Amino acid sequence: MHKKAERLQQVKPPTAESIPELAHRLPPGQLWTDRFPILHEGEVPQYDMAKWNLRLFGEVGSELLLSFEELMALPQTEIQVDIHCVTRWSKADTVWKGVLVRDLFKHLKIDPTAAYVMVHADPDYETNLPLADLLGDQAMVAHSYDGKPLTAKHGGPLRLVVPHLYFWKSAKWVRGFEFMKEDRHGFWERNGFHNVAEPFREQRFSDDDSHMPEDEWKNFDFD
Ligand SMILES: Nc1nc2c(c(=O)[nH]1)N[C@H]1C(S)=C(S)[C@@H](COP(=O)(O)O)O[C@H]1N2
Ligand SMILES: [Mo]
User: Fold this and answer.
1) C-alpha triplet 217, 38, 173: angle, nearest 5°
2) Is 120 in the pocket of ligand 1 (CB under 6 A)?
């Protein structure tokens, strides 16, 4: 098991402190924060936007390469959603702007046998999820947060936001969607974390032992 998953399993979960009006929106074992923690493996990538592209490939009629300009020309949507990180922080009413994944996928002939997607991101990050989880009205590739261009540390120029799953599924610096017949594990899914990752079912770890220290996330960077 990856050492992060192992370390997080050592400690008992905290008693949940919460904001009464938001209590029904806080998944079990989570704590609200007003700050915005910064979490990732590796270095923040730098891009020449003239060369940047988003690749849609795998079980599709013909693959698609989109420039940032082409992406910005697609219908733009704003969402206001709660987000939940497996390290126990949740953030209410975050506002993102971008292209709904289902609008992005409209430009493809996805093979009917494609049931899963591997999300490819820099630097060398991947996370998997069922295709159906990307087709709802809240899954988007976002380029703006809180009315401003997404900062590099939070995944700019483009990140995935899938608010109904733990936030490691929301790949920062997203570069590709690979359509797959069979499911395949991404980075954290290979390293002790749950394949499905629904916060309200507390699907944190692949072995169902959901212990996570209360203050793990307080040691990370914020802005
Ligand atoms: N490319 C990439 N995306 C990533 C990660 C990563 O390591 N690399 N970490 C994930 C995890 S574990 C979390 S909690 C969120 C954190 O997003 P934030 O830094 O904007 O809060 O990004 C997710 N997306
Ligand atoms: Mo995370």
Assistant:
1) 135
2) no
Look at the chain and report how many structural domains it folds into: 1
Tens-digit pLDDT profile for residues 44-101: 999 999 999 999 999 999 999 999 999 999 999 999 999 999 999 999 999 999 999 9
CB-ligand 1 contact for 145 (6 Å cutoff): no
Rounded Cα distance between 158 and 17, Å, is 33
Does residue 39 line the site of ligand 1, with CB under 6 A?
yes
Pairing of the two strands 174-180 and 54-58: parallel
139: domain CATH number? 3.90.420.10
Which residue has the CA at smallest separation from atom 6 of ligand 1?
A: 40
Ligand nearest to the CA of 42: 1
**pLDDT tens for each residue of 179-223:** 999 999 999 999 999 999 999 999 999 986 556 666 777 777 887
Q: What residue numbers bound the domain in which 84 lies?
A: 3-222
**Interatomic CA distance for residues 144 and 161, integer angstroms:** 11
Question: What's the burial of 68, exposed, middle or buried (CB within 10 Å: 0-12/13-18/19+)?
Answer: middle
Give the atom of ligand 1 at the shortest distance from the alpha carbon of 123.
1
The pick from 91, 144, 168 for probing ligand 1's pocket by mutation, whose C-beta has the most ligand atoms within 8 angstroms, reads 168
pTM of the model: 0.91
